[in-house]
Specification:
The structure holds two protein chains of two kinds. By secondary structure, chain A is mainly alpha-helical. Chain A contains eleven helices and seven strands. In chain A, helix 5 packs across helix 6 and helix 9 runs antiparallel to helix 10. By secondary structure, chain B is mainly α. Chain B has one domain: F1F0 ATP synthase subunit C (F1FO ATP Synthase), CATH 1.20.20.10. Chain B contains two helices and no strands. The radius of gyration of chain B is 16 Å and the shape is elongated. Classes of the chains: A mainly alpha, B mainly alpha.
Chain lengths: ~350, ~70
């Protein structure tokens, strides 16, 4: 029985992997001017959502020179004669460019899906704990056990370890929710029509921005003293070190955003590129070599897909871990002055 | 010219990041072999340090992407 189920699962997986090729053939037969595979189209943001092969157009909210325009979709915006399409972007008919585009895009929708799933998951678990399941008795069911494993992981291995013991409880809520939301958003990219919203720099920059503000607001007196004025350092060296430290405040969240973005984007591009090799081989050596070599590329894609599933969880973990490390570094209070004095004493001993 | 610069840059980034992460892996494996009971802590520290190196490498990767795409800043 299990063997049969496994076989069905693997064949479904293989069929979904073949899916991009099928779409490409549809496109070439319907519209000749469209490229065979739109590599960037798989990666960039869209004004529509594809759910199980059905395109759902999303509303456009545009602000031009202080005037607000609301449309059900890009098509209705063009049909209303207020807007026209120039180089793939909407421009008002009198030529004024859009000053603020608040349109709901597919990446934004997937961010919301991730947040809603996180909310459902955590609120459901919270209700169970309130009823006493898991508190007075053992946690019951697979889902609650998964929740408990993940929560304990974030609490004990991330928050407790890197944030000072008297403060870590305040930050668990943020760390756990950001971990779950990023994990969900990353794993949406594994669905056949899904999009991983974290492969968009704006999404990751927003997440890193939240971490940045939490870090700054939880900074202790010692943290700020170490940023602006170094105890036990020669005043002339402070001229060099202070700008570097202030710059470091901003590079930390920047690296956080770029890391998540680049990791998720590279996985996407790699899969599309390797599937594209089928068509490159077909162009160079003819259809038989192309079809024959596709066995290699598709199995390689399957391996990459598993790697992507692993990276989706790993990047969520790394984002949470680094957020905890940064918050912990800022929130830490220490008696560094004594240490510096001790170091100075040791240094003078060595020199004498 | 931008493509050439981006290609050479990407190669150097990969070299640097590869050496860095390789050294981390070497250190981690050696210390786990020496003290297997501390493998959990060592693994955590290894991932953290590798993430920092990755961050620096990705900074450089963004620069090469800007070069290759011809975006003038």
């Amino acid at each position: 029985m299990k063997q049969v189920l496994r076989g069905i699962l693997i064949s479904i997986l293989l069929l979904t992997l073949f899916h991009p090729a099928a779409i490409a053939q549809d496109n070439s037969s319907e519209a000749e001017e469209e490229p065979v595979i739109d590599v960037m189209g798989k990666i960039v943001d869209h004004d529509y959502l594809t759910l199980v092969g059905v395109k759902i157009y999303l509303p456009r909210i545009l602000v031009v020179d202080g005037e607000l325009y609301l449309y059900g979709s890009t098509k209705s915006a063009i049909a209303s004669n207020d807007f026209q399409e120039v180089d793939g972007a909407l421009v008002r008919s009198d030529g004024a460019p859009v000053s603020l585009d608040m349109s709901i895009t597919s990446h934004l929708m997937y961010v919301w899906f991730g947040i809603i799933l996180t909310l459902i998951f955590t609120i459901w678990a919270a209700r169970r704990y309130k009823r006493g399941i898991g508190k007075s008795v053992e946690p019951q069911g697979v889902t609650q056990n998964i929740f408990e494993v993940l929560f304990l992981f974030v609490r004990d291995d991330i928050a407790k370890e890197y944030i000072p013991a008297d403060k870590y409880k305040k930050y668990i809520t943020y760390l756990f929710s950001v971990f779950m939301a990023i994990a969900f958003m990353n794993m949406f990219g594994l669905l056949p029509w899904g999009v991983s919203a974290t492969a968009d720099l704006t999404v990751t920059a927003t997440l890193a921005g939240i971490t940045f503000f939490i870090t700054q607001f939880s900074g202790s007196k010692d943290h700020w003293r170490h940023v602006f004025m170094f105890p036990g350092v020669h005043p002339l060296i402070r001229i060099i070190l202070t700008p570097v430290e202030i710059l470091g405040l901003f590079t930390k969240p920047f690296a956080l955003a770029i890391r998540l973005f680049a990791n998720m984007l590279s996985g996407k591009i790699l899969i599309v590129c390797i599937l594209g090799l089928i068509f490159i081989f077909t162009n160079i050596f003819g259809p038989y070599v192309g079809v024959g070599s596709s066995v290699i590329w598709v199995s390689l894609t399957a391996a990459l897909y598993i790697l992507k599933a692993f990276i989706a969880l790993l990047q969520a973990y790394i984002f949470t871990l680094l957020s905890a490390v940064f918050i912990g570094m800022a929130a830490e209070e220490h008696d560094h002055d004594h240490e510096h004095e001790k170091n100075v004493a040791v240094a003078t001993d060595v020199t004498t | 010219m931008g493509f050439l610069a981006a290609g050479i840059g990407a190669g150097i980034i990969t070299l640097g990041a590869g050496i860095g992460i390789g050294l981390i892996g070497k250190g981690a494996v050696e210390s786990i072999a020496r003290q297997p009971e501390a493998s959990g802590d060592i693994r955590g520290a290894m991932i953290l340090t590798a993430a920092f190196i990755e961050g620096v490498a990705l900074f450089a990767a963004v620069v090469t992407a800007i070069l290759a795409l011809g975006i003038s800043v």
